[in-house]
Amino acid sequence: MIAPIEAAGLGKRFGRTWALRDCSVRVPAGKIAGLVGPNGAGKTTFLHLAAGLLRPTAGEIRVFGRSPQSQLLLLLDRVGFVAQDTPLYPRFSVGDMLTFGRKLNRRWDTAAAEARLRTLGIPFDKRVGQLSGGQRSQVALALALGKHPELLLLDEPVARLDPLARREFMRRLTEAVADEGSTVLLSSHVVADLERVCDYLIIIAAGQVQVAGDIDALLASHHLLVGPRLNRDARLNGVDLVKAQHTERQSSLWIRGTVPTLGAGWREESLSLEELVITYLSAPEAGTLPRPELEEAAS
Amino acid sequence: MTWVTWRQHRQEALWALVLAGLLAGVTAYTAYELWVSSANCPRIPGGNCLSNDVFGQIAQSILRFNLFQYGLVVLPALAGAFIGAPLVAREIENGTQHLAWTQGVTRMRWLLMKLVLVIVPLLVAAALVGYLEVVLLNVEGPQTNRWDVFDQQTPVVPAATLFALALGVAFGAVVGRSVPAMAATLVTFVIVRVGIGELARSHYIAPLVKTTHDFNAVGSQADPTAWWLGFPNYYDSSGHLLGNLLGPGAGQPSYVIQSFQPGDRFWAFQTIESAILAGLALVILGFAVYWVTRRLT
Fold first, then answer.
1. The whole model's pTM is what?
2. By CA distance, what is B9's nearest residue in A?
């Protein structure tokens, strides 16, 4: 099966700065994938490359096996995109925004889009500029879902929302994609936002992908071991160490894969998703990822 | 895309309609008054035959204040600044280009439709108003020198409008912010138009040179249909240049030389200048399309 998104050696440079470098990642179909990383890590750049808004400087990106740059027209109907800060035309009414979606998309479900906003109680005659942040992002989501996208890309959709609106947005999003069976790639710098809805995680820092995988598998394969202080140069043979931290009396080891037997005084502590993310973000050299091979689309 | 463009720009369309309509109305009214009155009185040099009633007086004031002529010079610049510059810049300012470019329409189609739908109606309006000025000048007769109002006639008016809009769109796309793009558009438009008018226009075709002993045979009073270039040069019988003015102490002039563009070249000049402006506009628009589709990536 062709992956919704596949990138190999993907890089994007703006002037002299690499916003994204040597990024190889694959988003499997049907997943709700979270793209997490600090501000300026390259999340927006990655999403824009996938949406065909940017051209890569290096490497390649494929969406459903096609290039979002040279074959964009074939992808526009299948990919929904909600840009950062959910831009809409402030002088348009909500109804106008829906007409905008209908007029500009060949594939468009007016009834579904209207029903979605009606359920939320958003008045169609209200100007977009007068909506609350939560309503505004719901309109943007309805607009992106109106074409029943097979892939939905969302760039920090809840960054400006209050906790209640965040929860509501995420709930509506998961409901919608559960019905449609679409793949979602959603960026955020807040792990808690992603933890509730995502089943796949891509950690990105300083323009590079640190780790990517099913959240359950990631949590199962990573361990935090705490024990008596180790010599800083102690060699741990056969251990895939992500990060080590030493205090006066104890050492903490973040380990990937099988847990080694370290002897008395060592115990395994539970590792939350947030801790896992922070571990990778604070040890950017630790990430290792197999590079996926690009599949050619049958055209 | 047609609906979207209309919804986005209907306010500007209304403004353009009101201003162009006002200008067209004023010009047409004055032309009509002149035409009606010309039938019932002999032609007075340097004046007109407008009646003394209130309608004639209104037309007289319009003529005196040159209302439409200022309008015809200023409006293309305003169209470039207020409609051309924000066309792409406002989208970039609000981030809405990312919304527009991820619907079912490619960026190229989005831009071309927007350009055509906004520019074509404005050009039609500009051509119409500029043509009314031509009609007015025809009614006025030779008392007004057409060359003095070169910038206010069709086809130069729509060509200048296209040029201003192209400048606005390109600056807007490159700068990405409306207000600086508007300022850049106005400044560039004025520099280019004044530059062309002052430096290039008189050279489109090599001017003719009139050399005569009859000092009254040069200048606008001799031939008001011609464009007399610079000042007359007076020479004495031995061929020494005396200066540009006749007067006491200037010596005894024998003949005068002045170069000019004859009146029958007027429409050729209009065509040449329109072609220059339209050509520049198309190059700039091409650049804007290139920038939006290739560089904003």
1. 0.88
2. A91
The shortest CB-CB distance from A76 to any of B96, B99, B103 is to B103
Taking an 8 Å cut-off on Cβ atoms, the answer to whether B4 and A81 are in contact is no
The verdict on B1 touching A (C-beta cutoff 8 Å) is: yes
What's the token pair of residue B222? 């001799």
**Do the chains contact at B105 and A55, CB–CB below 8 Å?**
no
Residues of B in contact with A53 (CB under 8 A): 98, 101-102, 297
pLDDT per position as a tens digit, B49-95: 777 788 888 888 888 777 777 888 899 999 999 999 999 999 999 99
Three-state helix/strand/coil letters over chain A: CCCCEEEEEEEEEECCEEEEEEEEEEECCCCEEEEECCCCCCHHHHHHHHCCCCCCCEEEEEECCECCCCCHHHHHCCEEEECCCCCCCCCCEHHHHHHHHHHHCCCCCHHHHHHHHHHCCCCCCCEHHHCCHHHHHHHHHHHHHCCCCCEEEEECCCCCCCHHHHHHHHHHHHHHHHHHCCEEEEEECCHHHHHHHCCEEEEEECCEEEEEEEHHHHHHHEEEEEEECCCCCCCCCCCEEEEEEECCCEEEEEEECCCCCCCCCCEEECCCHHHHHHHHHHCCCCCCCCCCCCCCCCC
Question: Average per-residue pLDDT in chain B?
Answer: 89
Question: Which CATH number fits the domain A5-214, given the four candidates 3.40.50.11780, 3.10.20.30, 3.40.50.300, 1.10.760.10?
Answer: 3.40.50.300
Residues of B in contact with A96 (CB under 8 A): 7
Name residue A241's beta-bridge partners: A255
User: Closest to B96 (Cβ–Cβ): which among A54, A55, A89?
Assistant: A89
Using the beta-carbon criterion (under 8 Å), do A106 and B106 form an inter-chain contact?
no
Is the Cβ–Cβ distance between A287 and A210 less than 8 Å? yes
Q: Would you call B10 an interface residue with chain A, using a CB distance cutoff of 8 Å? A: no
Give B140-173 pLDDT, tens digit per residue: 877 778 898 899 899 999 999 999 999 999 999 9
Question: What is the ipTM, given to two decimal places?
Answer: 0.87
- Phi first, then psi: what are they for A109, rounded to 5°? -115, 90
Nearest chain A CA: its distance from B224 CA (Å): 53
d(CA B85, CA B182): 5
Fill in the amino acid letter for A19. A
CB A269 within 8 A of CB A224: yes
Domain ranges for chain A: 5-214, 217-282
C-alpha distance from B19 to closest chain A C-alpha (Å): 23
The span from the CA of B183 to the CA of B84, in Å, is: 12
CA distance B9 to chain A (A): 11
Interface test with A, best of B11, B98, B109, B292 (most A CBs within 10 A): B98
Strand-pair category, B208-212 with B253-261: antiparallel
Among the residue ranges A44-53, A212-221, B214-223, the one predicted with the least confidence is: B214-223
Judging contacts by C-beta atoms under 8 Å, the chain A residues touching residue B94 are 87, 89-90
Chain A residue whose CA is closest to B106: A73
